[in-house]
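Hi P.,

Sorry for the delay on this. The queue was packed all week, but I finally got your sequence through. Input first:
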Amino acid sequence: MKNLFRLTALLSTLGTALPLHAMPYATPDTWGGDLSSRARLTGDWGGARDDMARKGVVLDLDLYWMPQGIISGGKDEESGSWGNAIATLNVDTQKAGFWPGGFFKVQTVTSFGDNIMRDTGALVPANLSWMLPSPTETDTGLQELTYTQFLSQNFGVFLGKINSIAPTNVLHGDYTTGFLNTSINMPLALAMVPLSAYGAGALYLPSHDVTLAAMVLDPNGTIMNDDLGDAFNDGVMALVSADLKVKPGGLPGHQNLTFAWSNKDRTSLVQDPSNIARLLLTERFPRLGDPGPILVEIIEKHAPGLLVPAAPLNQESETWAAVYSFEQFVWQPAGDPKRGIGMFFSAGLSDGKANPIKYSYSLGLVGKGVVPGRPRDDFGIGWARTEFSDDFVPFLRDTFDLGLDHEDAVEMYYNASVTPWLNISPSLQIISPALNKTLDPSGNFQNLDTTYIAGVRVGIRF
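Then the structure:
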């Protein structure tokens, strides 16, 4: 068991290759204590929670309430109050009295409230959680159901329904405590990778500093689709990744390269103009939510003839994308590896034939525990650019001067840890939408200006 925790420590020092799933789960000596110091709001459940943890069973319920409002620009100056409730069960098979090296994880996500996705004018969701578990309605879905087995301190395998957006980095990528904007949290060159899907994978550590990982996913997977019988009917989505830990000047960091490839037959972006509407109605881009209705609304009002396809849709038999990224602390207080100031960067590209995102970039600075007297607070400022493929609805771009070249987003947040179980995070986003125009309530074109979104995230761990 000691070797397994050593492996976990190596993987979690600062990022890893691909999302880790069921893993050894760190627990406090007790979940109890007074209201201001306990790890969870509901405490130790009369000792039952501490006893469960000693036996390898940990049950968490986390609630995130995220009111946001458009204070300027966008399509409409609206406000919304969205939320996610996340229930997670972790089981350590050795602590439970069974075999060593085995870990189960089950996670569900429930959404409630209303959001402003359609009002921002942006094609990239300004809040990643708006897509969880569904971008179209409030619901409950199974985000993860995985089993991981470590066969040695250098090698492990996992399978099940995999949460491909599970946070793996220290400085960014976790919408529950850090940035909200989708393009800052994840490289959108990987827009075709499902958020959650059945699959399997393996990870290998040939040395202390190198992690190699690979997994295959059902390319049609969604959080709401739990039918294992449908998995892999249309091919596979394969991802491979290499992660190198570095320590320039004694400060931890890591460099990562990820490659994604799929052999699913997908609708090509290269189409006869008369087929554009059908392309938007039939194809889905998991990490973009669903931009189709935004553009179809323009077609319905100003070019209804395009709603009737004139010919079969062109198809692409494969798609690929690659992303390079790094995280690097640039300052840390002596003897405290969990605090400091660090930066992150990512650059991705795709073939741009089935994927509407040709290039994606992100860059940011994050401070963790560096505000005097606030050792658990974080803050960050990040920027992301999403560049669209030249083949993504060029007829609409040219005919209606829609733009659709690139979309920029800047986000600033401060995550205040009021107690270990309560976080309050105000944020401000400034978005330059990819679309130059949108439709007003009367169906006429109106110019889209820079969008300013203010909000706050309240996180409660029960």
